[in-house]
Amino acid sequence: MGENTVPQILDRGHELRCFDLRTKRTLRTEKRLSKERAFETFWGDIRSYEDVRRAMERIECVIHLAAIIPPMSEEDPDLTWSVNVEGTTNIINAAREVGVKKIIYTSSIGTYGHCTGRGPPKTAQDPQVAIDTYSKTKIEAERRVRESGLPWTILRLGAGPSPNYEWISRATDSEIFKIPLDQRMEFIHPRDVGLALTNAIEADTIGRILLIGGGERCRMTYGEFVQRTFEAMGIGMLPESAFIVPERDEDYYHTDFMDTAEAQALLRFQTRTLDDYINDLKQQLGVKRHFIPLVKRYVRRRLLASSPYYRKNTEKSE
Question: Is residue 311 part of a domain?
Fold first, then answer.
């Protein structure tokens, strides 16, 4: 999300300072983004108050995107708490100290718990339910932001995966198979998330919790999203038996349709659809798309091997 936000903030003429942990990946990202437009980078650790405090000198508005997300959040709960909650507390305290005028905190639709698809789209007033470490830390961080005394805005983001081929590498941890194919999902293009964050800098959003999704034209099932994505990559849709078949409410994931009317009225960010995402995905793949058919059988076999349901469901059907 940060990568899609940086260029749009700079296009508005704002001065920008990015704060991130220095790794090989973040160094590559910083180098790539800075080729287009200059911005300042402060390397540090959100768990260090001194790092955060120095990074926020002369800052007027903070967009807080840092978080440990699944599956790592569930593998290391202590790290997740220290980054997602204590790191947020460091930002709050430093923001008070330097006199920040606005803090924009990015939360998640994951704070609504298991979404069965029954009922109307989610709203900012719907109850939050902690079902795992990630949602627990996000709910707690939201609370601390609201009670900070700072001028705050909270954006709860919907499903906005990057338009690249991370889907294949992420499949090795089986996450993509843990979502029922009939799960309701409101897609949002990552660049539209960046646009919402950019517009929130100057918009009248203080004290508001806003839901950030693509709108009615971006509503679909998870199965429709996976099929379009895998077909665009040249892999083809995988058998339904590779995905979880929900037998109880707890088997459903946390994606759902979202009431984004207020957010859209204030931030004017819904500009792209799944078709734009698919086109971007094909562009990212480039010439690799022409070679995927050569390894399609291997890739599909590897993906199915990482599914915790495929063999069990196949045996049931037999």
Answer: no
pLDDT in tens, 238-259: 999 999 999 999 999 999 999 9
Domain count, the chain: 1
pLDDT in tens, 157-215: 999 888 765 555 554 557 889 999 999 999 999 999 999 999 999 999 999 999 999 99
The reply to whether 46 falls in a domain is yes
Tokens (6 digits) for 47: 């768990």
The CATH number linked to 22 is 3.40.50.720
Residue 189 lies in a domain: yes
Q: Is 156 inside any structural domain? A: yes
- Containing domain of residue 108, as a range? 2-164+181-233+253-285
